[in-house]
Amino acid sequence: MRLDVDEEEKKTDPGEKEAEEERESSGNANGILKEILNNSVFLLVVLIVTLLLVRYVGQRTVVIGESMEHTLQNGDSLIVDKISYRFREPERFEIIVFPFIYKDETYYIKRIIGLPGETVRIDENGTIYINGEVLTESYGAEVMTDPGIAVNEILLGPGEYFVLGDNRNHSSDSRSAAVGLIPKERIIGRALVRIWPLNKIVGLTP
């Protein structure tokens, strides 16, 4: 049987078919590689942004201990704002995070009570005096029984802060010589919001 010219043109050369399959295979491989590359670049960008946020803007911190009860509980997760104090000074009653200088990888979380240039004194009844005037506040879980070194008036120098835990009879803070006054350069940031437990999400600004 004889094929006409049109039917001969429709016949596929085996060599051309193999070449076409190789091109399709190569195209698929290039598409997969391109997708992997795009995903890798995306993940790298996400990682870099995350690291920058953690380094310069904010970080997650977990509360350990009872020194800030009842405001904060053991196991609470917080977001610490690390950028605000680059543009303004810390304010009274803000909750801050700072390293404990006598133990590596140990951080304290306390509330600012005294500001630079002020005098702080705590009497035997647990009353706090700022510049000789009674400080009106209600953050303490109970009346302080130990004024520590603040039984004598303390003068805060430039950039120094006097801090207390809210659970003041169970807190190591500026009343202790081991903690003392906190210079601004040691402050990592301020506690901005509690994010865990979910049923206790709340902003922590005073």
Features:
206 residues; alpha+beta; 8-stranded antiparallel beta sheet; 12 strands; elongated
- How many discrete structural domains? 2
**Total number of helices:** 2
Q: Whole-number average pLDDT?
A: 84
The first-level CATH class of the largest domain is given as: Mainly Beta
CATH architecture of the largest domain: Ribbon
Beta strand % = 15-25%
Structural class, judged by helices and strands?
alpha+beta
CATH level 3 topology of the largest domain: Umud Fragment, subunit A
CATH superfamily of the largest domain: Umud Fragment, subunit A
Biggest beta sheet summary = 8 strands, antiparallel
Distance between the termini: 97 Å
Write the element-wise H/E pattern from the N-terminal end onward. Answer: HHEEEEEEEEEEEE
* Helix proportion: 10-25%
Quantity of strands, as a count: 12
The residue ranges in which pLDDT falls below 50 over 5 or more consecutive positions are 5-10, 49-54
Plain-language structure description:
The relative contact order is 0.16. By secondary structure, the protein is α+β, with helices and mostly antiparallel strands. It folds into two domains: 10-56; 63-203, Umud Fragment, subunit A (Ribbon). The longest helix is centred in the N-terminal third of the chain and has 44 residues, at 14-57. Strands 1, 2, 3, 4, 9, 10, 11 and 12 form an eight-stranded antiparallel β-sheet that branches. It has two helices and twelve strands; from the N terminus they run ααββββββββββββ. Residues 5-10 and 49-54 have low confidence and may be disordered.
